[in-house]
Amino acid sequence: DIQMTQSPSSLSASVGDRVTITCQASQDISNYLNWYQQKPGKAPKLLIYDASNLETGVPSRFSGSGSGTDFTFTISSLQPEDIATYYCQQYDNLPLFGGGTKVEIK
Amino acid sequence: QVQLQESGPGLVKPSQTLSLTCTVSGGSISSGDYYWSWIRQPPGKGLEWIGYIYYSGSTYYNPSLKSRVTISVDTSKNQFSLKLSSVTAADTAVYYCAREVPAAVNWFDPWGQGTLVTVSS
Fold it and tell me: Which of A5, A31, A48, A94 has the smallest number of Cβ neighbours within 10 A?
């Protein structure tokens, strides 16, 4: 089974900062990775699919990259409305989500 | 645009069966283009996929829950439902329904708002 390791589990950054979250797979998963944003008390929302494709309507400050085993999710300039928990998701016989990264404002 | 809405009891007694329904609006389950999934999230924890159903009635479940899960579909009502039997406190969670988009790596969009189900006597 493929294991996904998402890090960090939480981070605190200032408005305008560049924020980076990583997701590492235990084996090569090509570009088969999606990213979601979950704001407090809300359902997750798809932001990026196939590692780097921005979902329609998602601000361009969000981006994703990577392939193989190492993936990165970036917020180029953190905004107050970006406070949320972010999850990576892959599919190995069944959908599996990373443990999440809680992003807070410093 | 497609919207999903969960409904069902918010409190279930241990050993009983949890039953939830997801009503889809703005699109037809019968279109055949998507899978229709249930995902849950225990309080303060991460996301766990429960299973999906296709409009034809074919299903696929998480092996860890397979013995207790039944997902069904009612295309006439544009609804799909979840039953989870023999529940314990560990099944306390927010339950989401979501449209699962077939792709190289299937993704979930959109999601329902979620409904909290507490297992307690």
Answer: A5
Tokens of B21: 């329904």
Amino acid at residue number B9 = P
The whole-angstrom separation of Cα A91 and Cα A33 is 8
* Beta strand residue intervals within B26-74, DSSP E: 35-41, 48-53, 59-61, 69-74
Contact A43 B113 (CB under 8 A): yes
Query: How many residues are given for chain B?
Result: 121
Instruction: In whole angstroms, give the CA distance from residue A69 to residue A46.
Output: 21
Confidence of residue A106 (pLDDT cuts 50, 70, 90): very high
pLDDT at A1 over 90: no
Min CA distance, B108 vs chain A (Å)? 7
Nearest to B88 by CA among B10, B15, B9: B15
Would you call B87 helix, strand, or coil by DSSP?
coil
CB B56 within 8 A of CB B83: no
Pairing outcome for strands B79-84 and B93-101: unpaired
- When pLDDT is cut at 50, 70 and 90, the band that residue B104 belongs to is confident
Nearest-Cα residue of chain B relative to residue A99: B46
CB B29 within 8 A of CB B15: no
> Which of A9, A46, A56 would best serve as a mutation to test chain B binding (most B beta carbons within 10 A)?
A46
Helix, strand, coil percent content, chain B, rounded in steps of 5: 5, 50, 45
